[in-house]
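To the team - magnesium ion complex, inputs and output below.
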Amino acid sequence: TKPLLKVENLKKYFPVKKGLLGKTVGYVKAVDDVSFYVNEGETLGIVGESGCGKSTTGRMLMRLLEPTEGKVEFDGKDLTSLTSEEMRKTRRDIQMVFQDPYASLNPRHTIEKILEEPLVVHGIDNSKERKKKVREFLEIVGLSAYHAKRYPHQFSGGQRQRIGIARALMTNPKLIIADEPVSALDVSIQSQVLNLMQDLQKDFNLTYIFIAHDLGVVRHISDRVGVMYLGKMVEIAESEQLYAQPLHPYTKALLSAVPVPDPNHQKEQILLEGDIPNPANPPSGCTFHTRCPAKMDICMKAIPKLFEQYSGHSVACHLYSELSGNDIKQMEGSL
Ligand code: SF4
Ligand code: MG
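Output:
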């Protein structure tokens, strides 16, 4: 396995403007120095509450949103250095599936037209071949060829997400970024769509980035999971490792809210105090300190860096920092 995607020090700062002249008075650090990789054929789950920067990260990977800083290396190419024309061509290899398929499917277009569009945009196949492919892919995602002439409103939510997935597959991409693809669906439908995505991953050798707001949804689909809080990656590990031994207090709290099959093994839910702070005015030091049940004095002063605690398991928290206890004491003395 080799990384298909490598993200280094990715940042997105949105200026905060004030007054009649729109003077920039500060920045919302929506994504603040995020680094990770995704190996070919694997699924990386990215989890966090709304506003943590996970969707912004996803959109920057495709340059639907320009990064403020950082590097996105995909398939050996630095995407941030491509011209818009080169980027446009590269998008056939990276596709997105969105949370709300209804909003992302043009209501006035037939399914045929919707699924054909990415092929038209990228100049793939002639009209006859495209129409044949549309019908093939409808079957592949569990719909029928005769659905091609229908309109989005004639489908259920789950069927619409199947259409969204078919559309993402049309150009034969390598990477699919799925931004909360099942969050709007009933629980019973969720698992059908997740199963479909897993089958497609094998059949088409796909790599996934799967964005979700809770750890329950990504558990079975992800090989590795990253947890984001206020624009930062606070923990990342192989799934089994993360669920068995979460390190970051935020991950622990998120995980305590995920129901387990056997209620006798349900851990007591860790309720976090307060809301997510305003990202325009984040807390000092560790931005989680205002809600952290384990916070120490140093947490308000020093920003914890993401640090590899165990092989493949990194965490950004002073409880596990690369500094020894003595170093921390010294540092606190000097602050
Ligand atoms: Fe909590 Fe401190 Fe760790 Fe932040 S650095 S998560 S405040 S213990
Ligand atoms: Mg989002």
